[in-house]
Amino acid sequence: MKIAVLKERRAHEMRVAATPDSVKKLIGMGAEVAIEAGAGAAADYPDAAYAQAGAAIAADAAAVCAGAVIVLKVQRPMAEAEGGADELAAMPRGANLIGLLSPHSDAASVARYASSGVNAFALELTPRITRAQAMDALSSQANLAGYRAVLEAAIVFGRAFPMMMTAAGTIAPARVVVLGAGVAGLQAIATARRLGAVVSAFDVRAAAKEQVESLGATFIEVPSEETQSAETAGGYAREMSEDYKKKQQQVLHDHLKKQDIVITTALVPGRAAPRLITEAMLRDMKPGSVVLDMAVESGGNCALSESGKTVEANFVRIVGIPNLPSRIAADASALYARNLVAFLALMIDAKEKVLNIPWDDEIVKAMALTRDGEVAHPDFAAAARPGA
Predict the structure, then answer these.
(1) Which terminus has fewer CB within 10 Å in the chain: N or C?
(2) Residue 288, Cβ neighbours under 10 Å: how many?
(3) Are residues 47 and 110 in the same domain?
(4) So which residues are the catalytic ones?
(5) Helix residue ranges per DSSP H, 6-136
(6) Measured between alpha carbons, how far is 341 from 17 in angstroms, rounded to an integer?
(7) Dist CA 336 CA 18 (whole Å)
């Protein structure tokens, strides 16, 4: 039962799908683990540490994937059309690919997995149930992203976060507002509070109020009955009505005039990120304010935000940093690797130490994109058909 761990090749990606600690656990589960040379270098995991943990070091993608039953990745495989080697071509037919495969943003890749005979499992489709919490890679990575977002905003911000009493006078604390109180938003709130900022937060879900206030932040409310049903069964925010959005914009516009830093985290699975901050709001913000748009890779919550750039408009800096978890690569890789180990524990027979995928398990069914050359997930079957 060979498990292959590939080096990540996409821009801005420094994470790796296994750590020396997770390699030991996988070997304990009965696997033989092969790591592509240099796979962990960007996250400060040298090849020697993997070898010491019991992994074989392979020279390239073809060598690491040869004979592999399971292939672990962080991001979806590169295709030749994207300007790199075709990573999927290196994987044997019948191999089980597990990673953050972005099926919503790249539905065409699902058809490629099926035609290549690879069984693909997307970790971002992990159901939000108690039994699957240890496998929830979106949450583990969002937690670190929320922390890092505040640090990045603090670097760009030209003032201090905490109140400071000095002989030369008092420095007022920074005022930070976090838009979206999911996993990333809650960690951003906690981090900004630790740094001494006065923090407020907004979320369409009324249930988020208690969590926000428990962290010592003020909750911004938009009067509407819609907030009572703004959360999906999976714990995500729903798309709100146009009437609600107009009320929300007015409330946020008034609030943002007094803020120094805005962290936006709002995402709706399978859709473009909702636009929360308009150009009119930006014009009315204080000079020197910073907006860090965590949703920039999904279209952005803020007008004018651009992925990979800091845009300045009317003395307001709009920061669009892609792949924030990758900026804290060692810890992000460690948590992600644990997510993978937890998922593989569901798929590997602990007694026989062989792969035995429980295809009828609700977790596996939710995450399986392809199986035996066919698209298995109903949400992507239509999009994966030729000509779709």
Answers:
(1) C
(2) 14
(3) yes
(4) 128, 133, 136, 139, 236
(5) 20-28, 47-53, 61-65, 108-115
(6) 10
(7) 8
Q: Would residue 9 count as lying in a domain? A: yes
Among candidate residues 119, 98, 379, 385, the one with its CA nearest the CA of residue 234 = 379
Residue 235 · residue 205 · CB < 8 Å: no
Structure-block tokens of residue 331: 């810890």
Whether residue 216 sits in one domain with residue 151: yes
Could you tell me the residue range of the domain that residue 262 belongs to? 141-322
DSSP secondary structure string, 224-263? -GGGGG-B-TTSPBPPPPHHHHHHHHHHHHHHHTT-SEEE
For residues 338 and 19, give the distance between their C-alpha atoms in angstroms, rounded to a whole number: 9
Digitized pLDDT (tens) for each residue of the chain, 388 residues in all: 999 999 999 999 999 999 999 999 999 999 999 999 999 999 999 999 999 999 999 999 999 999 999 999 999 999 888 877 899 999 999 999 999 999 988 888 999 999 999 999 999 999 999 999 999 999 999 999 999 999 999 999 999 999 999 999 999 999 999 999 999 999 999 999 999 999 999 998 888 999 999 999 999 988 766 665 555 555 555 566 778 788 889 999 999 999 999 999 998 877 889 999 999 999 999 999 999 999 999 999 999 999 999 999 999 999 999 999 999 999 999 999 999 999 999 999 989 999 999 999 999 999 999 999 999 999 988 755 544 4
- What are 370's strand-pairing partners? 375
Residue given tokens 């919503």 in the structure block = 104
3-state secondary structure of 285: coil
State how far the Cα of 9 lies from the Cα of 87, in Å rounded to an integer. Answer: 9
Residue 48 forms part of a structural domain: yes
Last residue of a domain, one of 274, 289, 322: 322
Task: Mark whether 150 and 211 lie in a shared domain.
Answer: yes
Q: Is 131 inside a domain boundary?
A: no
